[in-house]
Design the sequence.
């Protein structure tokens, strides 16, 4: 398949996808994109605005995976804002729902949008797998995954979980980058569901 991997980060979701697909990854942060390129040299990596890239290129792909920014939706951020002074409340970034609605009505190929379980209750009926929510236009069967104590996990535990070593890279917040990764076995599980839906 021709796959578009948006807001790709270091490619946590992509790790177990293999090399049989033609994958284009879009990541805004050039340093993080360099790590992705290093880890997945056969993928085309574009440094740019994933939201705009989706709008301009959605028709070119068989399968689209999008993981828009989750910080403004997170229950963790909301709880900190309520409990501690100095953390200002902010509007949730509605890029998430813009992309879901856009893909629902315009995409001809298969797609999935991933994000955290939000503090306000999710809209548009997602599928929950572990701590993430998934909106898609194909069936993702139920899956019981328990990634233990992720909130407390430090860089060594997160690197082990995701099967990646970031020690040679100079990145500003390695722990957050690793926490943003979708567990690679879940990424593989969802891709396999998309492959079945194409048959």
Sequence:
């Amino acid at each position: 398949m021709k796959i578009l991997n948006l807001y790709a980060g270091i490619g946590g979701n992509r790790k177990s996808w293999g090399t049989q697909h033609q994958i284009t990854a879009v990541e805004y942060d050039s340093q993080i994109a360099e790590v992705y390129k290093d880890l997945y040299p056969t993928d085309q990596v574009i440094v740019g605005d994933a939201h705009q890239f989706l709008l301009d290129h959605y028709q070119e792909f068989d399968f689209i995976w999008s993981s828009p920014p989750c910080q403004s939706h997170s229950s963790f951020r909301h709880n900190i804002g309520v409990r501690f002074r100095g953390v200002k409340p902010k509007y949730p970034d509605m890029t998430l729902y813009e992309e879901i609605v856009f893909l629902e009505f315009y995409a001809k190929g298969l797609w999935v949008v991933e994000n955290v379980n939000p503090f306000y209750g999710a809209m548009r009926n997602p599928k929950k797998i572990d701590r993430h929510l998934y909106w898609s236009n194909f069936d993702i069967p139920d899956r019981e995954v328990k990634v233990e104590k992720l909130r407390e996990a430090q860089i060594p535990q997160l690197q082990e979980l995701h099967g990646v070593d970031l020690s040679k890279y100079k990145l500003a917040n390695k722990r957050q980058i690793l926490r943003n990764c979708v567990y690679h076995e879940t990424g593989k599980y969802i891709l396999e569901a998309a492959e079945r839906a194409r048959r």
